[in-house]
Amino acid sequence: MDAEVTETPEPPRFTGWAERPGRGPGPRRTPPDGRWRRRLALGAAGVLLAGAGAGGVVYAKLNGNIHTDSDVEAELRKWESERPPAGPPNAQNLLLIGSDSRTGGNSAYGRSSGQRSDTTMLLHLAADRKSATAVSIPRDLVVQVPHCKGPDGRETGPQTTQFNSAFAYGGAACTIRTVEKLTRIRIDHYMIIDFVGFKRMVDAVGGVEVCLPRPVRDDEAHLDLPAGRQTLQGEAALGYVRARKSLGDGSDTERMERQQRFLGALVKKVQSNGVLLNPTRLYPVLDAATSSLTTDGGLASLRGLYELVRSTRGIPTGRVQFLTVPRREYRFDPNRDELVEPDADRLFGRLGRDLPVAVRPAPGGAERPARSGGGAPGGGAPDDKPGPEPSPSAGSGPTFPGTTAERGICE
């Protein structure tokens, strides 16, 4: 997501085999120029193999990998009157949820009586597709969780609690409604990926390079790494983004900043390696993503995911931004966070109206919550003026501590 990429033609729908009078089933005829365009488009979608028949099989496999949860959409329809209105045309807001479920292949990471959202990001895609902004929502942020229905049918009343409890109470639907209540931004789509899915994604792109100032050993995060520059594959990459006690100051704040930089490096590698335009490299990425992905009906197809990726692949890495919602230590519990106002309201208001925001490197290279009032703790400038050293490609608007995909972990 580094230089502008030439738009490839939209992929045609897979129509299978056509009956040709007197000749039986066979592939549809396409003029030479049309055949080249079709192959290029299908290659970008990851479904072009040796021939039309094999391509159809691969398409069906990838398409069948994707999971959706009809209960989520039903629950959201039930509370439609409470949801925010749709945003500006063509702008999209996606909720990215990393689940810490210990079921299935995730059982190796311990036991849990339920699941919570280990990582949650609100991803805003600008209507002109010239920028993308991912906002991390701390799992310990104290929020208002609305009335929610759990997977067992039991219902919970509205309550004030930490953010990641929403996923435990009512899954994606409850988390979406909590975010919408918090931000007043309507969520257009959601994606849930678990530990195993994350590892497979990193392996599919050949790992991500990180730099460690000292050796790290963390049995809880399954992490044992030497100091220095190195490329992390799936298991080590997962430990790197999950670790708390062994990296940095042990805070969830620093862990979120590390996750943002890692995802930025992942985006940069995907673009620099030409993965999106190379079917041989793209197929394992799509296979890893789709087999570990739960999403809404609007994205629950290979075509739906392709359209989303196709619309964003021209965004320069300098305009793929990561930040954390402005927050500080919760006044009643130092182990929890609360929003900093009016900074958080300003951030959500601009994203909801598809207005630009900018990010700047945090002092000391890591973002930390404010511990006292005054000024603009944890967030943007109170008078909407850019802060020092804004990202030169981020556009105008208030500036918040954060990073971009252009800045590598080792830079």
Notes on the structure:
The protein has helices at residues 32-45, 52-65, 70-78, 165-183, 195-204, 234-242, 252-272, 279-291, 302-312, 343-352, and strands at 18-20, 24-26, 67-68, 92-99, 117-125, 132-136, 142-145, 148-149, 155-156, 159-162, 189-193, 208-212, 216-218, 223-225, 228-232, 293-295, 320-324, 327-330, 333-339, 358-360, 399-404. Helix 2 runs parallel beside helix 8 (279-291), helix 5 crosses helix 6 and helix 5 packs antiparallel against helix 8. A nine-stranded mixed β-sheet has the order 3-16-11-4-5-6-17-21-20, with helices on both faces. A two-stranded antiparallel sheet has the order 1-2. A two-stranded antiparallel sheet has the order 7-10. It is of the alpha+beta class. The two termini are 18 Å apart. It has ten helices and 21 strands. Mean pLDDT is 77; it is low at 1-9, 11-28, 44-53, 102-113 and 365-394.
Structure summarized in a few sentences:
This protein is an alpha+beta fold and 411 residues long.
Strands of the largest sheet, in order across it?
3-16-11-4-5-6-17-21-20
Coarse structural class: alpha+beta
Supply Rg: 22 Å
Number of strands: 21
Low-confidence stretches: 1-9, 11-28, 44-53, 102-113, 365-394
Approximate helicity band: 25-40%
Overall pLDDT level = 77
Profile the largest sheet. 9 strands, mixed
> What is the CA-CA span between the terminal residues?
18 Å
Question: Shape, please?
Answer: globular
Strand content: 15-25%
What is the count of DSSP helices, taking H or I runs of 4+ residues? 10
